[in-house]
Amino acid sequence: MAGRDIKSDPTSGKLEILDLTDANFVAGGGNFYEKDKWNKAAAAENTVQSHCFEMTTLKEIKLPKSLRAIKSESFKQSNKLTAITIPEEVTEVGDNAFEGCSSLVTFDFPKVTKIAGSVLANCTALTKITIPATVTELSYGMFSGCSSVTEIHIAATTLPNKGWKPFDGIDQRNITLYVPAGCVDMYKADTDWGLFKEIKEEGGTTTPETGVKTIDVKTAGTLSTLVGADKFNLTEIKVTGDINSSDILCLREMAGRDKMNVETSGKLVSLDLSGANIVAGGDSYYKNSTTNLEFTTTANIISEYMFDHCKLESFVFPATATAIEGGAFGSCYNLKGTLTIPDNITRIGNYAFEACVSLEHVVLPAALKYESFSKPDLGSNVFSGCHALKDIVIPEGVTRIRTNAFRDCFELTKVTLPTTVTYIDGDVFKGCKKLAHIFAKREKAPTASYGTFEDGIYPTCTVHVPAGSVGNYKGASYWENFTNIVEGTVDGIGNIEAGHTSKVADGIYTLNGVKVSESNLAPGIYIVRKNGVSMKFVKR
Questions:
Q1: Potential cystine with 70: which of 48, 60, 232, 329 (Cβ 3.0-4.6 Å)?
Q2: Taking the mean position of all CA atoms in its chain, how far away is CA 3?
Q3: 294-295 vs 286-287, strand pairing mode
């Protein structure tokens, strides 16, 4: 059907397009190729055998998803072939496999470890070749006679071992080599790689790839390989499967920071790990340059400094994560909008979100424990320096808010304290000069400390307390300094026509009393008003 018989002689077949995506190669049957008594071939499981598509009329072919190997000379001299789809799982492409495929324009190698000899020899129309990070060995004359090649992209961060004259037969002076970030000098110093016309970092002059790309990590530690040449060019990804320290390092590099916290060319701003599981193992993802301590992953934990200083603008937590450790998102200056921390997270460490200066809203989980003592406390400096943070609702169960937790949250206007808070450390709200409403649900005033509140807010900030509790607050240290302590709504919706709730129209309101549309509702905390009844809800 594709123009060749068992002896490779021409037939009248005219097959040009062949889709084998859902087919499987299995052993059995007779030979499909018998050039002579020395040259024979039969089918084998999950393999394109030698000579299988040699000299055919095919223009396009999609190989089976189950394929694992492409043997030598399997597509040799198929000179009409313009497009081929090879599954990533293929780990072997043999010698001369595509020799003489003179209509191929681009070729992306699958996850092979070796580039075989003359594998693309005399592919004269070929302009671009992509080599994966998995490659560790190069063979003789891999691209010999590929006279039109202008660019080669390689994702390997370690120089592959070379056979004799791997680039024989191509003019390297006319080809630009693209390499991973930080690897230019390494490739330039090599006697063979260094002969290319130019050696550039991948992504240095390329428009970032947009749209969410989902990457399923079947084996922990392989994310960098799966991302390949796109590593420093992707802006939005969703990662599923098990990920370890090596994968976290890859994500850090993609999001603008390497292991030593040095800036990279990575462009990743949106990261969704909702379908990922953090597991132990792999190389360290962060090294403290002062102490030389190195950090690795622990199962189901967003560990210390995991995304410190990264360029991330949005982040979705793993559904299996149980804790966020100290400094995990420290100085993520671009993290913005609303961050929802799911209820599966029960512990947030000190400094976890320090200096996330663009973050406006945070939805905290239902139950929290302090990182060191397993107490239901909110850790110190956890949101300090979050300049854009507008409001915060501390969940029920938290008994203590520790030092500097919200220090210098310059835009903070409203705080809701649960019935369980009994102690607020010093400087918790220091620098929060715009704080206008504190909704304190506890009848007895929580113990405050020196500097708990910014001095300048006492005349302007209103403290809303439960009915019958005004005296308790006016008689308590530091609370007594507030000019306005009033009884009434303590659920954070006091601005919805306080005192006239019967006149509030049904609908959905922000915590500031602004009515919003149900369509395209962003994640956050809202009040639903229906038939004269108000109810708080969280959209995640």
A1: 48
A2: 47
A3: antiparallel
Which amino acid is it at 462? T
Residues 6 or more apart in contact with residue 91 via CB below 8 angstroms: 68, 69, 110, 111, 112, 113
pLDDT of res. 527: 75
C-alpha 524/C-alpha 341 separation (Å) is: 10
- Any idea what the Cα angle at residue 79 is, between residues 74 and 85, rounded to 5°? 60
Q: Which band of pLDDT confidence, cut at 50, 70 and 90, is reported for residue 102?
A: very high
* Amino acid letter, 271: L
> Which SS3 state, helix, strand or coil, does residue 152 take?
strand
Give the angle subtended at the CA of 114 by the CAs of 109 and 117, to the nearest 5°: 90
Helix residue ranges, H only, 168-321: 184-188, 223-227, 245-254
Task: List pLDDT tens digits, range 170-200.
Answer: 888 889 999 998 888 888 888 888 888 889 9
Q: How far apart are CA 33 and CA 264, in angstroms?
A: 52
**Alpha-carbon distance 69 to 89, whole Å?**
9
pLDDT tens by residue, 214-223: 999 999 999 9
Q: Which pLDDT tens digit goes with each residue over 361-403?
A: 999 998 887 655 566 788 899 999 999 999 999 999 999 999 9
Cβ burial of 470 (10 Å; 0-12, 13-18, 19+) is middle
Cβ contacts of 157-162, under 8 Å, gap ≥ 24: 157/133, 157/182, 157/183, 157/224, 159/186, 159/187, 159/190, 159/193, 160/115, 160/135, 160/136, 161/136, 161/137, 162/137, 162/138, 162/192
Q: Tell me the residue type at 46.
A: N
Three-state DSSP at 247 gives helix
Q: Which residues contact 46 (CB under 8 A, 6 or more apart)?
A: 24, 25, 64, 66, 67, 68, 69
CA distance 308 to 332: 6
Alpha-carbon gap, residue 204 to 267, rounded angstroms: 11
CB 138 within 8 A of CB 160: yes
